[in-house]
């Protein structure tokens, strides 16, 4: 009996002093941590790239929508006044929102927020002014009887209506 008891006590003591290997392996190894960090890095880069792509698409959509709204406002102005506003961005903006004292003017045809204007000119999503050329004081190349209206697009350079330019013709 004593032999059996001492054997059991020896087993109990040995299990307390030397726990099984499953208890010792509670933490992560360095390799496991590096793998998790690498996976997280890949996921973050995918999410960031997707968000940037969505921002680019949103900026292009905003410019297209603004050009469409300007076309409607300019058509209303021309219908009331008998001609399009004079060429140049600032003159277009002024004509659409400021009463010239003409009895035919039924505006404002479009109102602009402060953050959309720089020095009286309407700017696009990339901080560049829209280009407006009307038959009243200019020579539109694409819509010869009315007006050309466009943005240079994300690259900010005039591609003459090609590349990433966003236009109304």
Features:
3-stranded antiparallel β-sheet, 48% helix, mainly alpha, 169 residues, Glycoprotein, Type 4 Pilin, 4 helices, two-stranded antiparallel sheet, single chain
What topology does this entry show?
Elements: H1 2-17, H2 21-24, H3 30-81, H4 89-97, E1 117-118, E2 121-122, E3 131-134, E4 147-151, E5 166-167
Antiparallel strand pairs: 1-2, 3-4, 4-5
Task: Characterize the structure shown.
With 169 residues, the protein is mainly alpha-helical. It has a domain at 62-167: Glycoprotein, Type 4 Pilin (2-Layer Sandwich). 48% of the residues lie in helices and 9% in strands. The protein contains four helices and five strands, in the order ααααβββββ. The chain has helices at 2-17, 21-24, 30-81, 89-97; strands spanning 117-118, 121-122, 131-134, 147-151, 166-167. A three-stranded antiparallel β-sheet has the order 3-4-5, with helices on one face. A two-stranded antiparallel sheet has the order 1-2. A hairpin with a 2-residue loop joins strand 1 (117-118) and strand 2 (121-122). The longest helix has 52 residues, at 30-81. The protein is elongated. It starts with a helix and ends with a strand.
């Amino acid at each position: 009996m004593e032999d059996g008891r001492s054997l059991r006590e020896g087993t109990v003591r040995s299990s307390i002093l030397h726990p099984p290997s499953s208890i010792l392996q509670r933490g992560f190894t360095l390799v496991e941590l590096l793998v998790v960090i690498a996976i997280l890095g890949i996921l973050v880069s995918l999410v960031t790239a997707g968000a940037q792509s969505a921002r680019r698409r949103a900026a292009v959509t905003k410019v297209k929508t603004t050009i469409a709204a300007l076309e409607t406002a300019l058509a209303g102005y021309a219908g009331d006044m008998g001609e399009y506003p004079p060429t140049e961005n600032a003159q277009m903006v002024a004509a659409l929102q400021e009463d010239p004292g003409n009895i035919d003017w039924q505006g404002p045809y479009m109102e602009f927020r402060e953050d959309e204007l720089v020095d009286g000119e309407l700017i696009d999503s990339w901080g560049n002014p829209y280009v407006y050329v009307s038959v009243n004081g200019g020579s539109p190349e694409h819509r010869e009887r009315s007006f050309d209206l466009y943005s240079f697009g994300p690259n900010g350079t005039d591609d003459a209506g090609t590349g990433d330019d966003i236009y109304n013709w």
